[in-house]
Amino acid sequence: MIRRRVLVGTFSAVAAALAVTGAAAAAFACITPATISLSTAAGRPGDNVTITGKSFSVPAGNPTGVQIFWGGAGGRLLAEAAPSGEGTFSAAFTVPDVAPGFYQVVAVLRDANNTDVAGTPGRALFEVQNVQARAPAPPEVQSFTPSADPTGSTFPLALVIGLGVVGLALFTGGFVAVTRSRRAAAPAPARIRTD
Fold first, then answer.
1. How would you classify residue 156: left for phi > 0, otherwise alpha for psi between -120 and 50, otherwise beta?
2. What's the rounded Cα separation, in Å, for the pair 66 and 107?
3. What is the C-alpha R_g of the chain?
4. Does domain 35-128 have CATH number 2.60.40.1930?
5. Contact 108, 75 (CB under 8 A)
6. Selection from 86, 5, 92 nearest residue 51 by Cα
7. How does strand 42-43 pair with strand 122-128?
8. Looking at the predicted structure, is the pLDDT value of residue 183 above 50?
9. What is the pLDDT of residues 112-123, one digit of tens each?
10. pLDDT surpassing 70 at residue 148
11. What is the pTM assigned to this prediction?
12. Residue 146: exposed, middle, or buried by beta-carbon count in 10 A (0-12, 13-18, 19+)?
């Protein structure tokens, strides 16, 4: 009897933990994170860069809109932009006169309490190059187009079916073993004597 109570208690605790985890995951999945894109990922001081953003929904009481910072959320303010009703924006900034290296560009949207809005900030990385260096050519985009194989290989299908059969056999074997062990462990009922 004690064993059953422990088993039921353990199962209840695991079920409750899974329910809480599932609810938290569902709530997080409902938030679309804000994203930003830069017109180029590298440039020299003085170059103009266009930044675009998505999923920046302006909360009530926000006087500034989206603020774009260089070097992190507490860095140099580069630009401000007002998102559209769909949460998109576009702005331009000039690359500051800084040493060559990688810098973070951050788009921040805060509410009336100066707290980051859920899903923000958006971040992108920008490389400042030497004055003599040229911006790299954009990488060539390669696409993959699967070709139709006239032979029609059935290997993946056979593998899935085989693994499914093995899994079903293991499940059935485990179920039979547990059922037999419970029957064997059950005490025989006591006989009542009638004299």
1. alpha
2. 6
3. 31
4. yes
5. no
6. 92
7. parallel
8. yes
9. 777 777 777 889
10. no
11. 0.53
12. exposed
What is the average per-residue pLDDT within 1-25?
53
Average pLDDT over residues 3-12: 54
Residues 6+ apart with CB under 8 A from 193: none
pLDDT of residue 137: 62
Q: 127 and 44 in contact (C-beta within 8 Å)?
A: no
pLDDT in tens, 70-91: 988 888 999 988 888 888 899 9
Domain residue limits, the chain: 35-128
DSSP the chain: -HHHHHHHHHHHHHHHHHHHHHHHHHHHHTSPPPEEEES-SEE-TT-EEEEEEE--PPPTT-SS-EEEEESSTTSEEEEEE---TTS-EEEEEEPPS--SEEEEEEEEEB-TTS-BPTT--EEEEEEEPPSSPPPPPPPPP----PPP-TT---HHHHHHHHHHHHHHHHHHHHHHHHHHHHHHHSPPPPPPP--
Q: Mean pLDDT lowest for which of 44-48, 98-102, 146-150, 164-168?
A: 146-150
Dist CA 2 CA 17 (whole Å): 23
Task: Round to whole Å and give the CA distance between 111 and 61.
Answer: 7
Nearest to 58 by CA among 98, 29, 85, 31: 85
The model's confidence at residue 13, banded by pLDDT at 50, 70 and 90, is low
